[in-house]
Design goal:
Elements: E1 2-6, H1 9-17, E2 21-25, E3 27-28, H2 32-43, E4 52-53, E5 60-64, E6 73-77, H3 93-96, E7 102-106, H4 108-112, H5 114-129, E8 133-137, H6 150-161, E9 166-169, H7 171-178, H8 187-190, H9 199-209, E10 215-218
Parallel strand pairs: 1-2, 1-7, 3-4, 7-8, 8-9, 9-10
Antiparallel strand pairs: 5-6
Length: 219
């Protein structure tokens, strides 16, 4: 099976480790750092022929590991990165999806910029038209969604998710992206006290909202 994965390198590498034919599509700067990133993907058996070049820098993040009662902290540095400045029309999705059977995307990408969100929608429309199975990891990251307000974020993610056959997510993803939460519970205030059975109501609401959805997997 030919998989195409956009901006979810963990998924791409995991599939390659299982000897699945997989390609990664993104936008990288044409410099030594971009070349290093591509080399690391090749080393792990991930196809890189569909990657496009452009921009001046690679998006990065910094992880400050917590200790004792102080939690870990992530600082994203994605502004003005190659993928943040991507625009519709930069990727030929007909070429990218040739022979492809499955397309996976992550909610991190549309969070980076309006351009990245537009390109994600462009990809989903192309994949859907070709009958390709589409999956997503909703992957809500509050620190990334800076270019729009909550209402616009919900509109973006609702449209993107409507093309999906399979969705992976949790209670926080559902509440923050779609306003869907376990009956009578706020994930933001209850935190880890949400019981597993409460997620059933989230599943029911998600399946009702997204009529084309075939499977919903809890992370």
């Amino acid at each position: 099976m030919q998989y195409m994965v956009v901006e979810s390198l963990i998924v791409a590498v995991s599939l390659a480790n299982y000897c699945v034919d997989v390609d990664f599509v993104t936008r990288l700067p044409k410099n030594d750092i971009g070349a290093c990133a591509m080399m690391e993907m090749r080393k792990r058996g991930v196809g890189v022929d569909k990657i496009v070049y452009g921009g001046d820098r690679l998006g990065i993040y910094f992880l400050e590991t917590g200790a004792v009662s102080r939690g870990s902290k992530v600082v994203y540095d994605r502004a003005h990165s190659a993928i943040a400045e991507i625009e519709s029309g930069m990727i030929d999705w007909d070429v990218v999806f040739e022979g492809c059977e499955w397309f996976h995307w992550t909610g991190i990408i549309p969070a980076i910029s309006q351009g990245a969100a537009d390109v994600t929608l462009e990809a989903l429309k192309a994949a859907s038209a070709k009958g390709i199975t589409i999956s997503t990891d909703l992957n809500y990251r509050a620190k990334l969604w800076k270019f729009c307000d909550d209402a616009h974020r919900e509109k973006i993610m609702t449209e993107l998710t409507s093309y999906c056959d399979i969705v992976l997510g949790n209670e926080e993803d559902a509440e923050m992206h779609f306003g869907i939460k376990p009956a009578g519970i706020s994930v933001q205030t209850e935190g880890h006290n949400v019981k597993a059975e409460a997620f059933l109501s989230v599943c029911e609401q998600m399946m009702e909202k997204f009529q084309e959805l075939k499977k919903l997997l809890q992370l």
